[in-house]
Every structure is written in C-alpha cells, then in structure tokens.
Specification:
The protein is α+β, with helices and mostly antiparallel strands. The chain folds into two domains: 110 residues, Phosphatidylinositol 3-kinase Catalytic Subunit, Chain A, domain 1 (Ubiquitin-like (UB roll)), CATH 3.10.20.90; 140 residues, Rossmann fold (3-Layer(aba) Sandwich). Helix content is 28%, strand content 24%. The strands form three sheets. The chain has a six-stranded mixed beta sheet, sandwiched between helices. Strands 2-1-5-3-4 form a five-stranded mixed beta sheet. A two-stranded antiparallel ribbon has the order 10-11. A hairpin with a 2-residue loop joins strand 3 and strand 4.
Length: 264
C-alpha cells in the first residue's frame, strides 16, 4: 500500500483507469493493515461489485492470523463499513473519485472487551422500540421469549410448542447481546422444527457462531439503520452505535419493502 500511495494522484488515476478498462466488472480495492497487525500477502483485490462486505471480510480474514475471539473490522475514510452492504454500494460512498480505487483498512476488536461500540453491542440494555416490533411482525401475533422482565430461561423453552399451544404466529426476539451466540444457536434449532422467527441484533458475521447458526439456517438478512433502542433504566437510548440487522428464519420479509439479502 505504501508503494501505491507513494505514486502521484495522476499516476494512481492512470493505474486505476487501466484496471477498470481491463476488468470493467470488478472494483479495485486496496487493503492495508492497522498498526500492530500483520500485513496481507497481497494488498490489491479485484472484487465483484455484488459481493457483500461480510464475504470480503471473510476473504481477508483467511489471509491473516488473528485470535478467533477477535472480530475483524473493515474501515474506509475513518468510517466503519457496513457488513450488509455490497462492495459497489460501499464504493459509491467511499471510493476515491480521483483514482478509482476503494481504500480499506482492516483492524480488530476483542469481542469480549474491546472499546466503543463493541462494548455497547455486548450490553443487554437495548430494548426494542414498539414501532420496530410492529413493523417486523407485520400484524401477526407473536411470542417474545426475551422481554426485559422475563423470569424464565428462554433457552430451555420449546418455542415451537409454545407457539402451537398459544396460537402465536411468529417468534420475535431481541436477545441479550452478551450471549448472542447461544440465542442464535437456539434460533437455528427451533427453525428446523418449522418455527418462524425474527431476530433483531448486531451484525456479527465474522464470529464463528454466525457462520454456524445464521448462514446455514437464516433465510433473509435485512439491514436496519437508525434503531432508537429503549433502556429499562434510562428510557430512549438513541441510535445504536453498531450495525443492526433483522434475521428471518422461515419467513419471507418482502412485506417490509426494504433492501434485503437472501442467505440460504
């Protein structure tokens, strides 16, 4: 990357133009490491425009050795990139218009005690605003196994059987983010019994539990921006400082009229 940045703007522009002419269906992405992290064996990637950032993050992660407990994050222009967006969407917003390249830096945060938004996304004090719940369940009666005041172990309840006995149409949950992996495993298990489930949670696509319990079982992922969560103690918290998605198990969310990604 340093060698590339040492070129003049005009030289980088010429280089970018040649690449785009030769590979019109690819986006040139330059990737560099954050301070203290190992460098990649290659820094320039030609990426399909419809590739999700989460998929590209996985490609980068495979090329470096980092602790499995650490989340790999990609940034551009000092902005944390949204894993639910495609490379073309990110390029449109963050691409260097002078050179034609997308410049990305990878960094890591310890998901068991990092800083900033990582700490916040591990908190359990992120209650669902009623209007969000109503939009997601679309008028269906629903069972919420994880309300603020729940007194039973939601992981031991048979959600599918509960819905059958009570006539509830869907399960909606905003699980405790400190044990998100356990709840996503539960969602995967219940979905195999035909349970229709909607989950609102932080995007954690680089974690092992996401690969195990979301990718193979979840049908659709819908990015959800500017969610104003509610705190049991403090009232409205404002917009979450981390990327929020809605996961749909055995449900087609086309009724939302929002951008969505089919997973499996």
């Amino acid at each position: 990357m340093q060698e590339h940045l040492a070129l003049t703007i005009s030289q980088r522009r010429e280089k970018g133009e040649k690449i785009r002419m030769k590979y019109p269906n690819k986006i040139p992405v330059m990737v560099k490491n954050d301070i203290g992290l190992p460098k990649l064996d290659k820094e320039k990637f030609l990426v399909p425009p419809d590739l999700l950032l989460s998929e590209f993050t996985y490609i980068v992660r495979q090329r470096i050795k980092i602790d499995s407990k650490k989340a790999l994050l990609l940034m551009s222009n000092n902005e944390l990139l949204n894993s639910c967006q495609t490379i073309s969407e990110i390029y449109e917003r963050n691409g260097d218009k002078d050179t034609g390249f997308l410049y990305v830096t990878y960094c890591v945060e310890n998901t068991f005690g990092g800083k900033g938004y990582i700490n916040k996304s591990l908190s359990d004090d992120w209650g669902s605003p009623p209007e969000l719940v109503q939009e997601l369940v679309n008028g269906n009666s629903f069972f919420d196994p994880t309300p603020f005041d729940f007194e039973v172990d939601a992981l031991t309840i048979d959600w599918t059987e509960h819905c059958r006995q009570t006539g509830k149409k869907v399960v909606y949950l905003n699980p405790p983010y400190s044990i998100l992996g356990k709840f996503l495993e539960k969602c995967a298990f219940e979905s195999t019994k035909g349970c229709r489930i909607i989950v609102i949670c932080p995007m954690r696509c680089s974690n092992k539990y996401w690969k195990n319990w979301v990718d193979p079982y979840c049908k659709f992922i819908v990015p959800w921006e500017k969610v104003s969560f509610i705190s049991k103690e403090r009232g409205v918290l404002g917009h979450a400082p981390f990327h929020i998605v809605a996961l749909f198990y055995n449900i087609d969310p086309t009724y939302l009229n929002r951008k969505m990604y089919k997973v499996s």
